[in-house]
Design brief:
Layout (H helix, E strand, L loop, with lengths): L1 H32 L52 E4 L1 H11 L1 H21 L5 E3 L3 E8 L12 E9 L2 E5 L6 E13 L6 E16 L8 H68 L6 H34 L11 E4 L12 H11 L1 H23 L3 E17 L21 E2 L9 H15 L9 E2 L14 H9 L5 E9 L5 H68 L5 H36 L2 H4 L7 H4 L1
Parallel strand pairs: 1-8
Antiparallel strand pairs: 2-5, 3-4, 4-6, 5-6, 6-7, 7-9, 9-12, 10-11
Helix pairs in contact: 1-11, 2-4, 3-4, 4-5, 4-7, 4-11, 6-10, 7-10, 10-11
């Protein structure tokens, strides 16, 4: 409006000046034709026909001066950027570079990877576990019974070697747990009543525990895994949201650079017009056709346009650095020294938008709403788990096992270790019925007392009957080494079967009830949060749609304004060429055209930026750029 007012004032001033000049010229001619008064001394000479007419005013005779050279163009070299290095870049290439190199996208991608590792860690609870427990033990313990078969000191020494591998696993379905065990024992003892010494004992079996009520449908492990899967999907939704935001930022930075470069070119063209006007003015001043004062007006406009050009170069540098920050990973990358040349032109679609369809699509595609839906799924998992924890616990427990035993049979020797003095076994392998240490063996003690009484009476010691020990009391299948033990084990002639139920009845169970109440409150809170988020998304879509529509109308209006500015400049140039306009008015028309072109470029780039923001608000920016992100759960 200010420029229009100045133009109107300049045009009015020119008209007023022309009128004043005509009035002065007419007045001079009237005075020349009017006779002097009668009191004049000079005689009045009547004008004769055919005498010379009054002379026309002549152009001022201005001194000739030497023309000044046109000042050189200002340097557009940017700091840290080399002129000979260019990087042609389309919008699609810029987006691909951002997806591969953007550090913020890398951070969001690592969040997804971390969530995957946490899920794998939780699922590891269902991995089978194999355990080994080799053990050697040696014990010497006193015994209080003669049936323990102790030695003369009343002790029994036992040496054991245990080796028991086992495999256990928790079941994903049903919440059960099983353990397969294979226990092996080698024992040697000093007990005289052991029929096998050493002997080998093995047992192979399965223990199984199955919840029947609490922890059957869901337990703590399955709850955490199901929740972590939802967390993984949430991290994927956050990653999609961050990628969408980065893509929108790349598009805005790209179109800002397009505008900055076109604005710089427009400013340069406008400066070239001023330079040409400078050359013409210098030529006119040198020829004496214009006053030297006109130099000041042209030089002022030239300096002003140089300032605008330098400012546009600064804007190009800022826009280019903003785009490089989004598409480059390393701050020391060589591409920082290159000039980016965008290859895409702004697009324009005059078709009006469908707000209702956009709102529906946004409710389905926005990652923020998807994240809230997943949070509601997590809440439902918590409700299921806490309800299950309020029930009594009834577990079925069962054990099925088989055993094997074998060893070296113990054969009594002829010499009675620990027997009475002078009593020994016969050559036929018979042994006394009573033998042993009188201090440890009750029968031997009684026999010793009897012999003492007989000796006091001069009688010989009582004869102890000899018996033949049964050395084959151990079954044949139990005699052997470890191989015989395994043979007996897998013959399944011996077994151990145990079936039972464990019942646990909580009297109050306030912890589970409080957790359930908290989950119910959280469900209501999430519902309110979801409604609030849906409203926020709807507002963003409406604002973005209005921005697109406003930008579309701005493009149409700016194009019309630019066409009219071109016509006005062409007319002003013709007037200037015939002397009916001034340098000021010509400069004003040139500036108006430059501003109209800038407004058109700005409207076109703003339209593309608004479209990018609308796609982000609707949640379709990935699909519109042909970007597919595979779900981490699909890869599993």
């Amino acid at each position: 409006m200010l420029k229009g007012l100045l133009f109107w004032q300049a045009r009015s001033s020119m008209k007023i000046g022309r009128c004043a000049a005509l009035i002065l010229l007419s007045g001079a001619m009237v005075l020349a034709q009017t006779p002097p008064p009668a009191s004049a001394k000079e005689p009045v000479t009547p004008r004769q026909e055919g005498s010379a007419a009054p002379q026309e005013p002549r152009e001022p005779n201005l001194p000739q001066v030497e023309p000044r050279p046109v000042p050189p163009l200002p340097s557009l070299q940017r700091v840290g950027v080399q002129k000979d290095r260019t990087l042609s870049l389309s919008l699609n290439q810029a987006i691909r570079l951002a997806l591969a190199n953007n550090n913020e996208i890398e951070v969001a991608r690592d969040d997804v990877r971390f969530a995957e590792s946490v899920l794998r860690s939780l699922e590891g609870i269902y991995d089978p576990v194999i355990s080994f427990t080799p053990q050697i033990s040696s014990t010497i313990e006193p015994v209080s019974s003669v049936l323990a078969g102790s030695d003369q000191r009343g002790t029994v020494k036992t040496t054991d070697f245990n080796f028991g591998p086992a495999m256990s696993q928790q079941l994903r379905f049903g919440g059960g747990q099983y353990q397969i065990f294979f226990n092996n024992l080698r024992r040697s003892t000093t007990s005289t009543f052991s029929q096998l010494n050493p002997f080998y004992s093995s047992s192979l079996g399965v223990q199984f525990t199955q919840p029947l009520w609490r922890n059957r449908a869901i337990d703590q492990n399955r709850r955490q895994i199901r929740i972590q899967k939802k967390r993984l999907e949430q991290s994927d939704a956050d990653f999609r949201r961050r990628v969408s935001e980065i893509i929108a930022q790349v598009e805005q930075a790209y179109w800002d650079l397009v505008f900055a470069l076109k604005d710089q070119q427009n400013k340069l063209s406008n400066l070239e017009l001023a330079r040409e006007q400078f050359r013409q003015t210098e030529a006119r001043v040198a020829a004496g056709a214009a006053a030297p004062i006109e130099r000041a007006e042209v030089a002022t406009e030239l300096a002003s346009r140089e300032t605008d050009l330098l400012q546009s170069a600064q804007n190009v540098s800022i826009a280019e650095n903003n785009l490089k920050q989004l598409i480059l990973r390393d701050p020391l990358a060589p591409e920082w020294a290159a000039q980016i040349t965008p290859t895409d032109e702004p697009n324009f679609d005059p078709t009006p938008i469908d707000l209702a369809a956009l709102l529906t699509e946004a409710r389905e595609n926005r990652p923020e709403l998807q994240r809230l839906r997943l949070e509601e799924d997590i809440n439902r998992i918590d409700l299921e788990f806490y309800r299950n924890q309020t029930r009594p616990r009834i577990d079925l427990q069962a054990t099925v096992a088989t055993t094997g035993l074998a060893g070296t049979a113990v054969v009594p020797t002829g010499t009675l270790t620990g027997g009475l003095a002078g009593v020994s076994g016969s050559a036929s392998g018979q042994v006394p019925l009573i033998f042993g240490d009188p201090n440890l063996n009750a029968n031997a003690f009684l026999l010793a007392q009897i012999n003492q009484l007989r000796a006091a009476q001069g009688l010989p010691p009582a004869e102890v009957p000899l018996i033949t020990p049964q050395t084959q009391t151990v079954p044949t299948r139990l005699v052997g080494g470890y191989a015989q033990t395994l043979h007996n084990l897998f013959s399944f002639e011996t077994r151990n079967v145990v079936v039972g139920v464990r019942i646990e009845l909580p009297l109050r169970n306030r912890t589970a009830e409080a957790n359930l109440a908290g989950a119910l409150v959280q469900r209501e809170q999430l519902a309110a949060t979801r409604r609030s988020q849906e409203q926020q998304v709807a507002v963003e879509v409406r604002n973005a749609a209005q921005a697109v529509e406003t930008a579309r109308q701005r493009v149409l209006a700016a194009r019309e304004a630019r066409r009219n500015a071109e016509l006005q400049l062409e007319g002003e140039r013709r007037l200037y060429q015939v002397g009916r306009s001034t340098t000021f008015l010509l400069f004003q028309r040139e500036n108006q055209l430059a501003n109209a072109r800038n407004a058109e470029i700005r409207a076109e780039t703003d339209y593309n930026k608004a479209v990018a923001q609308l796609r982000r608000a609707v949640g379709t920016i990935l699909r519109m750029n042909n970007i597919t992100i595979q779900s981490p759960l699909t890869k599993r």
